[in-house]
Amino acid sequence: MKASILDNYAYQSIVQRIQVLTPNHKAEWGKMEVNQMIVHVTDQIRIAMNQKESEDISSFFSRTVLKYFALRVSKMPKNVPTVKEADSEKEGTKPTNWEKDKATMLALLIEFRTRSEYMTLAPHPKFGKLTRSEWGCLIYHHLAHHLGQFGV
Predict the structure, then answer these.
(1) What domains are there in the chain, each with its CATH number?
(2) CA 140, CA 136: separation in Å to the nearest integer?
């Protein structure tokens, strides 16, 4: 499996990249603005921790083949469609204040990392049931993917 937000080194590298990010960063690809990206990745963490409901849009293919590649392939493709619950133009969280939204994301990362391994996590909308380690991997690579989108 790939790097995980549960790994101290991976977590620290992501936090350092987030600290470099400013509201003035422009996307190198895609249509999201930086403040939309912050609430988008935060919604993924909320979904994982059962703080935001999401519709099950999985299929046998997405729970097996796509899940396997998502957890093991080194790089996410650009412009992967997101679930409506993490899209700020649909049912996702709307950006408010840059510093507040960023602080919320960082606090939820800590909450996810410190949550007991025995706590129940939500199924992923596309990949179905995931372990804490699998969620940690997806969260890390989702953050890395979007931070790269903004050049950090």
Answers:
(1) 8-149 (1.20.120)
(2) 6
CA 52 – CA 88 distance, rounded (Å)? 13
pTM of the complete model beyond 0.90: yes
Residue 14 contacts residue 5 (beta carbons within 8 Å): yes
DSSP code string of 5-64 = TTSHHHHHHHHHHHHH--TT---SSSS--HHHHHHHHHHHHHHHTTSS-------HHIII
What are 66's two structure tokens? 């796509």
| Token pair for 124 | 């992923």
pLDDT, one tens digit per residue, over 80-121 is 888 999 989 899 999 999 999 999 999 999 999 998 887 889
Letter for the amino acid at 148?
Answer: G
